Amino acid sequence: EIVMTQSPVTLSVSPGERATLSCRASQSVNSNLAWYQHKPGQAPRLLIYGASTRATGISARFSGSGSGTEFTLTISSLQSEDFAIYYCQQYSNWPPWTFGQGTRVDVK
Amino acid sequence: QVQLVQSGAEVKKPGASVKVSCKASGYIFTSYGINWVRQAPGQGLEWMGWISANNGNTNYAQKVQGRVTMTTDTSTSTAYMELRSLRYDDTAIYYCGRDLIAMVPTIPSFWGQGTLVTVSS
Q1: Are A33 and A23 in contact (CB under 8 A)?
Q2: Quick one: average pLDDT of B62-86?
Q3: What is B85-116 written as a DSSP string?
Q4: pLDDT of amino acid A108
Q5: Across the interface, do A96 and B44 touch by the CB < 8 Å criterion?
Q6: pLDDT tens digits for A52-73?
Q7: Is A58 near chain B, with CB under 8 Å?
């Protein structure tokens, strides 16, 4: 099973600032990496797939990069609606398609 | 537009079974697989398994293998997830999610609203 490790666990950011979230895979997943945003009481929302492709309707302030074992999600200028938990998920080897443990982005 | 509508909340006793439904609309049901993901209270997301709506092939996470069965009914465009021998730590919100890409097992792109399953004596 591929283990996904996200850092940091919590990221405190002021509105308008940039946020950088990391995700590391225990073995190469090539570019088979997705990022989700999850808010309480809502379903997760797909932000990025293929490590760097924005899903339909996702703001350009979200960008993804990386390949192999190291990945980054960058939110260029945090808006109030961006405060949430963010998960990475690999879909290279299964079962399972593993998630990271999540990074909580909250208001500084 | 793509929609996945899940069945309502359930309360079950330990050892019982639960069957959650996920009714799809807005796309050709048999062209996409369905993932099932859960989130226990205070925990992260956990992928449970996948089913092809085209041919019924499944792939389950080892953690629930032997207790879970995923099925589809193509006549009603509905996917089902049945979990048996429920334990307290099965208490979670269960989500269905449609594959991102047609005819290829991938990640969920469209999600249902979630179904809370509570295991309590």
Answers
A1: yes
A2: 97
A3: S--GGG-EEEEEEEESSTTS---EEEE---EE
A4: 86
A5: no
A6: 999 999 999 999 999 999 999 9
A7: no
